Every structure is written in C-alpha cells, then in structure tokens.
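Lab notebook: predicted structure, single chain.

Context: the supervisor wants predicted structures on file for every construct in the current expression panel, including those that have not yet been purified. This is the next one on the list. No modifications to the sequence; it matches the entry in the shared construct table.
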Amino acid sequence: MDSSWRRTFRELRGQFAEGAADRLAAIDGALDRLLAKPEDRESLAEVRLRFHGLSGTGATFGFPRVSVLGMRGEHACDAVAEAARSPTSKEIRTWRELVEEVRGAFSAEVAPATSEPGGAVEPAGEAAPSASARAIEILVAHDDAEFRAALASQLDREGMTVTVASDLADAKAILSQRVPDVLVVDMLFDGGEGGALVERLRGMPGGEGPAAFVVGAPAGFVDKVEAIRCGADAYFEQPVDWELFTRRLRQLLERNKAEAPRILSVEDDPDHAAFIKAVLESAGYAVRICSEPARFEAEAIGFTPDLVLMDINLPGFSGYDLVRFLRQNEKYAAVPVVFLTAESREKSRIEMIRAGGDDHLVKPVAPALLLSTVAARIERAQFLKSLLGRDGLTGLLNHTAFLEGARGALLRQTRTPGKGASFILIDLDHFKAVNDRHGHPVGDRVLAALGALLRRRLRGSDLVGRLGGEEFAVILEDLTEGEAERLMNRLLEEFSVMPHSGAGGSVFHVTFSAGVAGFVNGMTVDAWRQAADDALYAAKSAGRHRVARAKTEAVP
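Prediction complete. Output recorded below exactly as produced.
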C-alpha cells in the first residue's frame, strides 16, 4: 500500500490501542453484574458482544493475540447461551483471566505493525487501486501545428497527456488499440475526415463515454450541428478561448465519469468501521457507516448503496435478519451483500447464503482482499444492471432506464439551469404497414437502423432510449429547444433517405415524426413527457414526416 495508507493505518491502530482500556473496562463491568446476578442475560450478551469485537478487530490492527483471546471468550459465552443456562462463578473468573491476558497482549504489541492487517504483506510502493490514478488521455487529430502546440501546453497544466495522430490511418490505428478519454478533431482533418473519426469513436465498444470536441475555423450554425450530428460534444472556433475550452472539458469529464460506487457498511464497532472506511475511501468509493442497526432501512433509502457490507453480530439485531429484510424489497434484490464478520464456522456461512448474502469475508481481512471482493461484486452487479437497462434489439436504454435518466436530467436542470434541455419523442411513420408488407424481422431491422443512427449521431452524454414498439425518446441537454428541433430535422432527413431491404429484394424507405418539448422550470417528468407527446401528436396530425415543437408555458 502507499505511504498515505500506511500513515492512516498507523493512526487507526493507535486509536484502537488507546480505546482498549475502555473496551476492557466495559467487559469488567458486565462481569461484575454477572457475578452478582448470573441469570442476567443482557450482561451475558454484552460480554459476548465485547469479546466478539476484540475477536474481529484485534488482528485487523496488528494485535493477533487479542483476536485469539477474544474468540476464545466469544465461543465460551456462546456455549453458555446455547445451553440456555447461567454461567458458573468459575466460568466468570475464567473470563476475567481472559480480560487480563488481553490487557497483557495490548502491552506486548504496542510497537507499530510492520505488515498489513490479516498478515498480508503488500509490495513496497504499490498503491491502492484508485479511480483517478490514470492520467486523462487526449487524442488530437488536427492539421494545425500551432493549435496542437497550444493545446498540449494547456492540457499539460491540467495533468493530461496528449497523443497526436499524424493522419487518418494513424488515428484509426490508435483507436484500434484503445479508447481515449477525449478526442479533439478538425472536421477538415486529412481531407475532411474529422467527422468520420468521431463517428468511428462513437461506434466502438465503450465509445459513448469519451468527450469529443471539434475545433476549426469560424463556422455557421449548420456546421456546428453537423459536428454534433457526428457525435461531437462541442464545437470550438479558432482562436480558441482556452478558459472556456478547459471549463467545458472538465464539465464533460465529470459528467461522463461514473459516480463513485456507494458502499453502506453496517458495523457497530467504531474502530473497525474507521478501518473499513479508510480502506474503501482510499480506492475512491463513497462510504457510509451505519452504526445503529435500527437505522438500516433509513440509511438504505437515503444512501441507495451499490453494495452492503454487513456484520453479523449487532446490538439488538442479527445481520442475517437485516439482509432478509433488504431482500424483501425488489429495489434491493440485485444489490450485492458481503458479510464481514469474525464468524468463520460453516454454520455461519450456510446462514449467510440462506439470508441472501453474496460473499463472506472473515475478520481480520486484508485490505487487498476487501478491495478485490468489493470491486468484483460491484462490477458484476453494474454489468447486470446495464444489461437489464438496455433494449435488446437496439442497444438503447429501455423504458425504465430512460425514465430514470430523465429524472436525473430534470434534477440537473432544476438545480443548475443551463442553456436548456429538450425531451424528444420519435415515432416511426406507418410502421404497422412495414411489418404487414415485409414481415416483423424486416421491421426489427428498421428499428435497429434508427437506433444505430441515434447512437452514431448524438453525443455520448445524450440520453437515448426505446420506450417500446416503434417509439423512441431522446433528452438533449445544453441545447435550446430550437437547436434540438433543427438537429432532429437533420436526423429525419438522413433517416428518410436510408434504404431498407424488403421482401423479394425490394428497397423501401421509412420516415418518422418527432415532438420536441423544451424544459420549463417547475415541470415534472410526466409533464415534460406529455408536452413532447402532444408535439408528436401535432406532427402526426399535420401529415407525419416532420418535427413539431411543443407549446409549453412556465409552470406557476
């Protein structure tokens, strides 16, 4: 692990050692109560829970003997509880002796730990995984040497790396090896192939995410829309306003960058909770600790975790019961749950599976194992979520995923009003006749063709989905309603001349109608969609094969 993590670990270890006196004093107090009243089940449960805490946390912070002694005390308490009897005075004296041995173990192991928790020795200098460790790569396909030099100088100050393509073949070769974070092109690059390069990027697996800028000579609105139609995120005229360019670049990188996965850790031990939080945050995760099991439902609702780390032994609750409760809500059916506990017996693992857990880590756990487990579980869950959120025929967002994205777009517009945003509904004209005349497989190819056109021509940051049947939807942010209408007209023009192969080798063409509704402050998602639907109805009533704008008014 890196020096920063080692420093944090030493600080956490020191805090754990400093708190040992209070932990042991609490056990002594509970034992005093048990000695006076052996049938006191609450005091027995407290002794057991305190020993359990030492068992799980001791070795985590480099006190392996503490964990061994804590586990011995925990199992002894379990034997008494399972027999449904009160502890004998001899057993209580034995537990006091264990407490004294724990005090001695803390005194004997006060030197700083020389290895990572769990005995896992990390290679010197090896940093913990980080979402921001890799430098941002910019691929530049531009013939102007002066511009390239200025761009390299500007981005070097931003800590980004610039790769220059000498010609179209060189650019394609680079793209065949990797997907850059940003593509900067001139539409006239290498004989006017800049737009084709943006299209090539957008058609690659993972090519929807990178930012794409077109930089060229002063141009009219049509040329700028043409750049967007190719899939570019912005058009900058030369000479470039570098402050605006850099600000826009940062915005796109932030917007396109996935949010840090959210991890909810249900852990009542403050020392172990601090350890978990430090390890996971060092890798770029957003972590929230739920130290009070009674607040688990509220924390799950408010934090919407991508993964839950669950301890088993909690005050007043069982981690198994909390996970069973979680699984009753279909919203959390696919959220991975990893049990993180000192329980290593087979019975615990079986109960974990029955409760709906996905994995089981035994304390003390090495940071590398914790990070690897969390990363693998989240990656798998996000992959499945992406499959569930995509329309199988077109690859676009499905109805549910699109509307979820629409709610996010509306929230952004409400919080930080920008240039504008438009909700667009698209419906293929006379599509039933296509299916009746040429068959449903041909109809499916027409739907797929429209989906592919939308993917190629719109920006990676645009929200594009298929709502069902022949109806598609788009949300364009940072464009006015008029600009969105003109862009859709250009897409309509391109799609209407696209040839489709029908039955018996025939060739036919299909058009669509579209309704565009600009966002008006105070709108709900339903009202925004209804405005677009009204505009679509107007386009169809006017003869189809056209784009209509909604007549929206400010919501009081």
